[in-house]
Specification:
With 277 residues, this protein is mainly alpha-helical. The chain is 44% helix and 7% strand.
């Protein structure tokens, strides 16, 4: 009950989501858009596909220069080779993912049979096991290269995560929303603390991005890590930065969080992979 009250009070304070006891994902999505439209006048919802560069013009210019010779190109090329390489069965990833891999806009989705959120990384490993191949480690170079290629193939597609309508899907969505607003760690920060309440303000020398569009540009090449990292690796890093223990990659906590963030970004174009400092 304490967690639920904290969730409601955080969103009421932010002015974006009602405290209704009944989950209403579409109302959440529209409320998020309205909130950021008021907070950042003149910045369209779709512009948030660029993350913080949508609201920081100086940083946007620097980012465009980085994009002229993007460091994720090698990952995309390696991922394309992996995507097209046949398994021992003779099949390939193309037999699991249509449109030559341009499918990222549909993930994550909710598996009603398995009663869980299925991310793109989960789907890649399911494809492998369905064809008698060993699973890939989440966060591994091979997995991140594959998702880099799929992200690149999916560029300009519009996020269209299916609405959570069943009781189980709504529960997963609500769990992700609750995670986003629950304070953690020694710093007592929630995801919403930075990306809703303080969005557009500076944390040290960095401007804080909006929640809207957070999922659209992953995986990214981070100069800090000097390699490609996934969205859920970034979740884990954020948890560590506020002094909280990270959860397992592709576990229920981060997958439900990704589900929530992806749904509220429905209608925004994909432009991954990307480069970040």
């Amino acid at each position: 009950m304490k967690t639920i009250l904290l969730l409601c009070s955080t969103y009421i304070l932010a002015g974006i989501v009602s405290s209704s006891l009944h989950a209403d994902p579409e109302s959440d999505r529209q409320a998020m858009r309205t909130y950021y439209e008021k907070l950042f006048p003149g910045v369209s919802a779709n512009a948030h596909k660029d993350g913080v560069y949508a609201i920081d013009s100086a940083a946007h210019e620097q980012w465009q220069e980085m994009e002229e010779f993007p460091l994720y190109e090698i990952a995309v090329d390696d991922g394309e080779e992996l995507f097209n390489t046949a398994f021992a069965s003779g099949a390939s990833y193309g037999d699991c993912f249509e449109n030559e891999g341009a499918v990222k806009q549909n993930y994550p989705n909710f598996d009603e049979q398995g009663k869980r959120v299925v991310t793109l990384e989960n789907a890649i490993n399911t494809c492998r096991t369905d064809h008698s191949e060993a699973v890939l480690e989440y966060g591994s170079t091979e997995m991140n290269n594959l998702t880099s290629y799929i992200a690149f193939a999916s560029r300009d597609q519009v996020m269209q995560v299916a609405s959570p309508t069943s009781k189980a899907a709504l529960a997963a969505y609500e769990d992700g929303k609750r995670f986003y607003s629950t304070r953690r760690g020694h710093l007592n920060f929630a995801c919403a603390s930075c990306h809703v309440q303080l969005a557009g303000k500076n944390l040290r020398a960095e401007k804080l991005s909006a929640s809207l569009g957070h999922v659209t540009h992953w995986p990214v090449y981070r100069f800090k890590w000097q390699e490609m990292i996934s969205l859920q690796q970034r979740f884990a890093e954020c948890n560590a930065q506020v002094g909280a223990l990270p959860f397992d990659l592709q576990g229920e906590e981060y997958s439900n969080l990704e589900y929530f963030l992806s749904y509220i970004s429905n209608g925004i174009q994909l432009n991954g992979p990307a480069t970040r400092k």
